[in-house]
Design brief:
This protein has two domains: 71 residues, no CATH class; 158 residues, OB fold (Dihydrolipoamide Acetyltransferase, E2P) (Beta Barrel). The chain is built from five helices and 13 strands. It has a four-stranded mixed beta sheet. Strands 7-8-12-13 form a four-stranded mixed beta sheet. A three-stranded antiparallel beta sheet has the order 9-10-11, covered by helices on one side.
């Protein structure tokens, strides 16, 4: 899931990527996740049933995009376990194609494919740059309007930094620089800001986990990537960071 953003029709929305049992990518949008009943608030690596329209919302022509029937969401069981070296999760992800950023860009141009998995061959940095600490004026006006005419909206903090990976793939000449839109990153930042009472220290904690820890020699990280709409720039929407397996037991790249 991407970090939530305000919405006039749904109060707030997240963009969600998932894999079907037939191993097809699906983008679910719009989902007002935090405003769903608790029984419909699914987690990462958790199977659900949901009714889908044949295409995405509005003029979204990306091949994976589908408009979900929000009231039909039904959770099918607990999230897949991270035990045994993330075995349950690996059994799915290892069946999916792993591509380079350049290959994904080509697939978007030819077939409007807009979600994929990338394995960086060299992770160079996680750059942090300041962002506007407040929502743009039209969103602030929306929050005030919602409070005036209905129940107060849930607090939605604005993350005052932009985080971007800098990395190479096997066919890269120049490094790729891609923003990270992962909701987990936003949650981590907010928790660290509350714990340390310092924005810069909280941002550094994010870098320590998303760069130093996730890309340590003991892990086998992959990037879940997708395009933004309507600009179709590729961004990181999640990180898969299982513990590294012994060579010969599981060749993840085969």
């Amino acid at each position: 899931m991407t970090y939530p953003h305000p919405s006039r029709g749904y109060q707030e929305l997240v963009c969600t990527a998932g894999i079907t049992r037939s191993l097809d990518w699906v983008r679910l949008y719009p989902i007002d996740y935090r405003y769903r009943a608790k029984s419909q608030q699914f987690h990462k690596y958790q199977w659900i049933n949901v009714g889908l329209a044949s295409r995405g919302a509005g003029n979204d022509n990306r091949c994976e995009s589908r408009r979900p029937d929000l009231d039909s969401i039904r959770i099918l069981g607990p999230p897949l376990s991270s035990g045994d070296g993330w075995r349950e999760r690996r059994e799915i992800i290892e069946k999916m194609p792993i591509r380079t950023v350049n290959q994904l860009r080509g697939l978007y141009d030819s077939d409007r494919i807009s979600i994929g998995i990338v394995r960086p061959t060299e992770m160079l940095d996680l750059e942090i740059e300041p962002a506007d600490p407040e929502w743009k004026p039209e969103w602030q006006a929306l929050f005030s309007q919602l409070t005036l005419f209905g129940d107060a909206p849930k607090d939605l903090a604005k993350i005052p930094f932009k985080f971007s990976y800098v990395f190479r793939c096997e066919d890269s000449v120049n490094p790729h620089r891609t923003m990270i839109e992962d909701w987990e990153l936003g949650v981590l930042y907010l928790k660290e800001r509350e714990r340390k009472a310092d924005e810069k220290l909280a941002a550094q904690s994010v870098k320590d986990k998303y760069l130093v820890w996730m890309f340590s020699k003991d892990r086998d990280p992959l990037l879940f990537m997708g395009t933004t709409f309507p600009y179709n720039a590729w961004v990181v929407i999640g990180v898969f960071y299982p513990p590294k397996q012994c060579q010969g037991v599981l060749d993840f790249g085969s």
